[in-house]
């Protein structure tokens, strides 16, 4: 996929297939605009369709990850824009509803629907929209100095990008109620203690730790990991019977994938597996030679 500067963010790629999205409006604490959100959704669509992309990392330039929406002005940010402008906005209830459903909420939906694994490297303020995006990611690593929270009630507003749903998933109903109603903003250490982030690091080690995790995930069996990601999220909302049906259908695919053949062979030969042959242009193992299918 093409990389470079977009409206509100930059993109670059690190081996093996790690897409890094860096929000690039530090003068506004990376506050977002509608054009930024639309182009971010398009970038995630490209990442989904590009087999070479394995992991997506989000981070911010300067002292913020993504400090909510830009409330200082409703003027559209068209710098480096590649999509045509949309006219209309939050001038009436219908405009607010449409703006949320068509623009703002599609960002977190795109992150959740991405079958590639995602990591939020939270380097500073992650507030409102930025906080919700971080919660939508599969993994979160925070700098100790990070500040994150919904904080929408400080403005009499709601966590309208799905933040309430995501926070309930992470903290439960009681925890989400306390966190949002009391307008909490927590640092990296506290976020780790209450379970909002997977890891906390010194500020200068954030991207080192993030890329270490990204490379670990990128080296794993991509087909199985993508299938498992979808199944985990579905399992959170399914019955036991439905979750068994889902994982059985996915296993019927992954058990016969070249990565599974390589994994079985590596186990028998007491070596580390070398997955993702097709993604790396290598000859995949013989799919007819499944070790467990022949009783080996």
Describe the structure.
By secondary structure, the protein is α/β, with parallel strands linked by helices. It folds into two domains: 4-218, 2-enoyl-CoA Hydratase, Chain A, domain 1, CATH 3.90.226; 222-294, Lyase 2-enoyl-coa Hydratase, Chain  A, domain 2. The protein has helices at residues 34-49, 93-113, 129-136, 163-181, 188-194, 206-218, 222-235, 240-254, 258-268; strands at residues 4-5, 9-14, 18-23, 55-60, 64-67, 117-122, 125-127, 139-143, 147-149, 186-187, 199-201. A seven-stranded mixed β-sheet has the order 1-2-3-4-6-8-11, with helices on both faces. A hairpin with a 3-residue loop joins strand 2 and strand 3. The protein starts with a strand and ends in a 28-residue tail after the last helix. The mean pLDDT is 91.
Give the topology.
Blueprint: E1 4-5, E2 9-14, E3 18-23, H1 34-49, E4 55-60, E5 64-67, H2 93-113, E6 117-122, E7 125-127, H3 129-136, E8 139-143, E9 147-149, H4 163-181, E10 186-187, H5 188-194, E11 199-201, H6 206-218, H7 222-235, H8 240-254, H9 258-268
Parallel strand pairs: 3-4, 4-6, 5-7, 6-8, 7-9, 8-11
Antiparallel strand pairs: 1-2, 2-3, 9-10
Helix pairs in contact: 1-2, 2-3, 3-4, 7-8
């Amino acid at each position: 996929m093409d990389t470079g500067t977009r409206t509100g963010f930059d993109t670059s790629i690190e081996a093996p297939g790690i897409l890094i999205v860096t929000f690039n409006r530090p003068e506004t604490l990376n506050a977002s605009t509608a054009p930024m959100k639309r182009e971010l959704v398009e970038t995630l669509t490209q990442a989904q369709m590009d087999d070479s992309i394995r992991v997506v990392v989000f981070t911010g330039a300067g002292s913020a990850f993504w400090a909510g929406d830009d409330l200082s002005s409703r003027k559209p940010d068209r710098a480096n824009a590649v999509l045509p402008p949309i006219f209309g906005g939050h001038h009436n209830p219908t405009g607010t509803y449409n703006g949320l459903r068509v623009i703002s909420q599609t960002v977190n939906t795109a992150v959740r629907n991405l079958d590639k694994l995602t990591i939020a490297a939270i380097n500073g303020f992650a507030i409102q929209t930025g906080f919700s995006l971080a919660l939508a990611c599969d993994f979160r690593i925070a700098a100790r100095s990070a500040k994150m929270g919904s904080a929408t009630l400080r403005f009499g507003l709601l966590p309208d990008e799905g933040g309430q749903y995501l926070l309930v998933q992470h903290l439960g109903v009681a925890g989400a109620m306390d966190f949002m109603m009391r307008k909490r903003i927590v640092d990296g250490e506290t976020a780790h203690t209450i379970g909002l982030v997977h890891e906390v690091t010194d500020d200068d080690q954030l991207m080192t730790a993030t890329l270490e995790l990204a490379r670990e995930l990128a080296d794993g069996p991509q087909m199985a990991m993508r299938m498992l990601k979808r199944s985990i999220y579905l399992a959170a909302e399914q019955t036991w019977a439905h979750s068994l049906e889902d994982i059985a259908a996915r296993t019927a695919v992954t058990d016969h994938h070249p990565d599974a053949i390589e994994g079985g062979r590596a186990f028998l030969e007491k070596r580390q597996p070398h997955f993702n042959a097709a993604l790396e242009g290598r000859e995949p193992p013989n799919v007819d030679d499944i070790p467990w299918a022949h009783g080996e």
